[in-house]
Amino acid sequence: MSSEEIARKRLNAIQQQLTRSTGPADLSRERANASFDVNQMKTFFAGGKEFSEAMDDAYRFIQRDPELYLGDEYIFDASVTEQREATMRQLRRYVEVRDMLKSSLLVRAFHDAMCQYSEAFSMRLYVHEILFPQALRLFGTSEQYSEWIDDLLSWRIIGCFAMTELGYSSFLRGLETTATFDKKADEFIINSPSILSTKWWVGMAGETATHTIVLAQTVVDGKKCGIDWFVVPLRSRKTGRLVAGVAAGNIGTKYGRNGLDNGWIQFSGIRIPRTNMMMRWASVSPDGKYHPSPNPALSYAPLIGERLEVIRATISTASRALTIACRYGCVRRQGANNEQIMDFQSYYVQLMPGIAGLYVANIIDRITGSKWNKLVDNVDDGTLFLNNIADIHGISAGLKSIYGWWGVDILEFCRRSLGGHAYSSYNAIGEFIQDFSPITTGGGDNYTLMNQAAKYVLGSLKMASNGIKLEGSVAYLNNIQEALSRSNSSMASENEILDLNFITGALAWLSIRKAKAIETTLSGGGVAVWNDNIVHLIKLAEIHTHHYILSEYHNDLVEYGSTEYKDLLPMLTQMGQLWGTYVMQSLLELFLEEGYFSPSQAKMVKKVFYDLCRKTRKEVIPLVDAWAVPDFILKAPLGRYDGDIYPAYFNRVRNTPGCVGVPSYWSKYIKPMTDPDS
Amino acid sequence: MSSEEIARKRLNAIQQQLTRSTGPADLSRERANASFDVNQMKTFFAGGKEFSEAMDDAYRFIQRDPELYLGDEYIFDASVTEQREATMRQLRRYVEVRDMLKSSLLVRAFHDAMCQYSEAFSMRLYVHEILFPQALRLFGTSEQYSEWIDDLLSWRIIGCFAMTELGYSSFLRGLETTATFDKKADEFIINSPSILSTKWWVGMAGETATHTIVLAQTVVDGKKCGIDWFVVPLRSRKTGRLVAGVAAGNIGTKYGRNGLDNGWIQFSGIRIPRTNMMMRWASVSPDGKYHPSPNPALSYAPLIGERLEVIRATISTASRALTIACRYGCVRRQGANNEQIMDFQSYYVQLMPGIAGLYVANIIDRITGSKWNKLVDNVDDGTLFLNNIADIHGISAGLKSIYGWWGVDILEFCRRSLGGHAYSSYNAIGEFIQDFSPITTGGGDNYTLMNQAAKYVLGSLKMASNGIKLEGSVAYLNNIQEALSRSNSSMASENEILDLNFITGALAWLSIRKAKAIETTLSGGGVAVWNDNIVHLIKLAEIHTHHYILSEYHNDLVEYGSTEYKDLLPMLTQMGQLWGTYVMQSLLELFLEEGYFSPSQAKMVKKVFYDLCRKTRKEVIPLVDAWAVPDFILKAPLGRYDGDIYPAYFNRVRNTPGCVGVPSYWSKYIKPMTDPDS
User: Fold this and answer.
1) Which of A97, A468, B17, B658 is deepest in the core (most CB within 10 A)?
2) What residue ranges carry the coiled-coil annotation (chains A, B) (predicted)?
């Protein structure tokens, strides 16, 4: 035992005597288990030393600034109105602070830290600074983009994004809002013909936005010619009152993100100049001629970016929930031997793959995000954009659904991991669940997206069958003949399972087999047959997407061997193995059903998975520490870095206004019963 | 086509033209699909004609009474304080109304309807009228019970149930609160020695209760001798102020049930008479002699009733969520052919087993509830009670976990089924999720309970192996030798799968196999080996409990053949088949891994399950209609009985105070940005 270890043990012993709280000692013992440099991992996870330090600065800035910081006593007891006001207060301050900051790195860190701090803030900012401008960029000409962008970035106008209608969401061709061209006036008339056509869920439309970009049916000479985007004013910049011809308001109290003013909009014949139609792809000329887009699916392109954002949202939320659950799991003790509950298999078998999944997702987010950003930056090269849009659309649809659903699962598991204590709002996980869950149905419903991803795989398979060489996420389908000729796995030892090539190979095999079987089932059938096989289609999209995730992660890992991160490789490899075996064991039923694995091989896969969970459990605290989420962002006393959770939790409750005292309704409703004779 | 059908078609066509809302026509068409008498099914589900009519009366009463009815405009926008007050207002009124009602049937219906209307009301009432009195009944002598019960039932005192501590929940032996006997004074001194020993989550302790029944370590002559129950005063019945020696307060804002005042309690040496110790099983005599309980596990007995209540809670909540989701699914249209989304396999494959599961649960609730009530009613016959406690404990542990987890899954699926619209609080499902989810960790954490259920199965298996004949839920283990000698299923046709005997037989086989395998793994190992196999133990408890559910359901069905419900048998049998195949396909991986099913048999099971889902989907609306939940209890415009959902939803939003208008923070935070020069 080293002298340092002896000192630590003594310190722990004293600490335990003094406070009866074993938490701090537990966590410091857990921290000593790290096989890797936690600071280096923190740097890696953040994407570089400079950015990691900038994040630290940004966190510090937020916690100090009284207009940004929400205050412990406030956040979970605030009314909807108070939350709205606080979020807008943060936004205004955010714009001021950003203008002050000189370093673009610091601006980005400040942005990321604030978004992690508040989902409502994050969505408000996203709508205005990403969704609206990206739509301008993708659908407007360069001139149109220039016309609006300065006012937007300075917040002289506030934008929102009006796509979904009350009666139509994922099926955009059903949209009812019309933009009718009036040639004489050189204007479009925007109209909502029914209740169902009311624009719905539009973030910032409830109270804030001065302008919106609207998706509508373009009508020329009484004929619907296409679905296009139009910029329409909503409110006076001076007074906040609605422009004539626009009705808009709040959607009201929501299951999550109540600081965001989701709203509805009804247009009643408001007129806008013809040039407010975004004309990069489709256009209407002054003489009333409609020039269609080369690819009508382009209208949905902004959603690709939104969908890829779900990866980051999952990392942001799940990393907080997992940090809280894992620290609590190492401090909480229960059972005959007073065990740490983290040592129960039911806990670590769920929490460890969660952690591994986030390490993998972090890489996937970087890789896929940069693919998309490259396309957006080069949108003026129409060919490049159009050639790549199908693959990135397929990828984004699959990733959004996989990570959205998985995020909900992880959060629910973290909730259960706190025993009853997630029932208290002050332990934050309840709010995480509410803020995150709508992701599975918003921005393209996951079921619909998985259908689209499956359609893309099936279409690609057909091309591959016809000998066309595929690129991108579907390239593995080029091996269709080899896969169809192989009927089972020759895997004979546990070691083989740890090879990521083995796992991606198995997933590729399963995807091809499943796709081929579905192709046969669907052939000749119409929409009804498709509808009766959606469960299988979703499964196909799931396998395909998992293949993409693991292949990309694996390819990326190889590159770190020669960088400053090479010492992290063993742990990063373990994370890939854990995630890979987690995915494989979740698909075991299919592997068995298709005869790829024998029962004994299946048991082997499971054993390797469980073993990896137990093995990595030892480093659970270093692994979550490396995400470096400060306590004030976690918002949960049970997730405290120092492990001294109980006094903090009790004080949080005790200091809440209204904690003690006779309730206002005592004399009205209780006393008449308990003291009937007085 | 019959003339009735022609008339209906014409009516539908006209209706569609007038309103553009196809919902009413869709639902009436769906209703015409019923192969059974919906009213008869309603009667059956309610448990009889008289009670079904009493429920209708009770619903009407509630909706008319302004102190009971919450009002559409109110419920989802109320603050925590407003919710607390409204719930207590309802409680006071409830007591008055109950005293007025003459029929005990109507009282029960009124109770059930109110509990369905508000979870917070339900829990407040449950704590006071069931949890506290049942503890008195189970642990107090008859004299002690008589001493308190009148004051309790008349609400002259208000009770709560103080078991869980901040640091200890499922592991009760770890509890720290002490009840120290002072022989001279013939009193107990109740003390909370640390922060961790603070009683936590106690419903009604936050603001309301005047008395509590406390689980504490009994200390006599400086020695801890057992864990017993003590009645302790908390607040003045006249003023609501805390009794000296008691600190108590609110736990604060929660993830759900905010109308309930969950609280914390710290005892600082408060003295109670010796006779406030509940002395049915254990007792302390005036001379300071401790007489231990014949079975220390008896202390947890009240939780058995609480756990069985989870079945009813699942039915209550899931029936509402499923009604909303299924009606919406039949009204909402999407896709190229404007399909009802209910026709998408991804929907009906999740919603139909949910419906079947509730029909099954309804029977299980009745059967198991009456087993438990019989024991409680005969508690004075100590032998009967002690002989049956182990089996009912095992059953309740399994059922509580299975239904709790499954309920969360169903609610989450219903949330997703509303597309984005569950994001609006006004569609109720968000609140259902919050109100229900804590069930999985409260009243005995599900993981802990499943460990206990598995332990019971393993212990029973050992007895069966030694030739002891078992009764109750584990009786199937008597066939251990036959099961171990059979290595796979001979099932050859889809028809065999529809036989519930086949399904229960397969579950029994799997349970025995799994139990035997676990027994081998655990043998000789200590706590650490147990902890590393919890996932398998939980799976065992799950299979065992599913076997109980399906066997009991099957046995019960047989009896209806000769009753007034015989015409319902075909549908009730289908519900059993659908639930049975749902359970079996969810366990396919294990059946394949153990070699019980071959890959082709497994595919057959799945096919039968999917076919049943599609077949029963035709009657989805009649099946949920039979639960007869009125619109005002559903609280969700999207779940309206008449299907005219969109205007109701829009009006609900539009009529909420604050829906439109310039927000209070405009001039403070927005105008300075949008109108910087003014």
Assistant:
1) A97
2) none
A-chain residue closest to B84, CA distance: A665
In this prediction, residue A229 has a pLDDT band, given cuts at 50, 70 and 90, of very high
Nearest-CA distance B655 → chain A (Å)? 10
pLDDT at A18: 43
Question: How many CB pairs (< 8 A) connect A and B?
Answer: 360
Query: Degrees (nearest 5) of the Cα angle A600, A603, A609?
Result: 145
Residue that has been written with the tokens 């080293």 in this structure: A2
Cα distances (angstroms) measured from residue B198 to each of B171, B214, B606: 15, 12, 50
Using an 8 Å CB-CB cutoff, list chain B residues near A153: none
The reply to whether residue B85 touches residue A664, judged by beta carbons under 8 angstroms, is yes
HEC states along A325-349? HHHHHHHCEECCCCEEHHHCHHHHH
- Measure Cα distances from B515 to A445, B389, B509, B538, B592 in Å: 41, 22, 10, 11, 17
Q: Residue B17: is its pLDDT beyond 50?
A: no
Of A254, A346, A675, the CB nearest to B424: A254
pTM of the model: 0.95
- How confident is the model at residue B300, as a pLDDT? 74
Q: Let me know the angle formed at the C-alpha of A264 by A261 and A270, rounded to the nearest 5 degrees.
A: 125
Q: Are strands A211-220 and A199-202 parallel, antiparallel or unpaired?
A: unpaired
% of chain B at pLDDT higher than 90: 87
ipTM of the complex model: 0.95
Average pLDDT, chain A: 94
Closest by Cβ to A532, choosing from B158, B198, B614:
B614
Please tell me the total number of residues recorded for chain A in this structure.
678
A191-210 per-position pLDDT tens digit? 999 999 999 999 999 999 99
A610 to B535: CB separation less than 8 angstroms, yes or no: yes
Which residues 165-184 of A have a C-beta within 8 angstroms of B?
166-171, 174
What residues of chain A, 564 to 583, have a C-beta less than 8 Å from chain B?
none
Kindly state the average pLDDT of the residues A25-41: 98
Please identify which residue in the block is written with the tokens 């065990």.
Answer: A339
Computed from CA positions of residues A353, A354, A359, A361, in that sequence, does the dihedral angle turn out positive or negative? positive
B1: pLDDT confidence band, cut at 50, 70 and 90? low
For A476-501, the pLDDT digits (tens) are 999 999 999 999 999 999 999 999 99
A164 is in an annotated binding site: yes
Residues contacting B550, CB < 8 A, separation 6+: B360, B500, B503, B504, B507, B576, B579, B580, B583
Q: Quick check: A296 contacting B, CB < 8 Å? A: no
Q: Is A657 on the interface with B (CB under 8 A)?
A: no
B contact residues 399-428, partner A, Cβ 8 Å cutoff: 408, 412, 415-416, 418-420, 422-426
Interchain pair A346, B535: CB under 8 A: yes
Q: How far apart are CA B42 and CA B323, in angstroms?
A: 14
In contact, A468 and A474? CB cutoff 8 Å:
no
Portion 603-622 of A in contact with B at CB < 8 A: 603, 610, 614
B670 φ, ψ (degrees, to nearest 5): -100, -55
Domain formed by B303-625, architecture: Up-down Bundle (1.20)
Q: Which two tokens stand for residue A365?
A: 């987010």
pLDDT of residue B3: 66
* The domain defined by B159-293 carries CATH number 2.40.30.20: no
Considering chain A, tell me which residue range(s) the CATH 1.20.140.10 domain(s) occupy. Answer: 303-625
Q: Who's near B106: CB < 8 A, 6+ residues apart?
A: B54, B57, B58
Nearest CA in chain A to B83: A665
Q: How far is CA B239 from CA A472, A667, A671, B148, B587, in A?
A: 73, 8, 8, 20, 57
**Two tokens, residue A314:** 């999952």
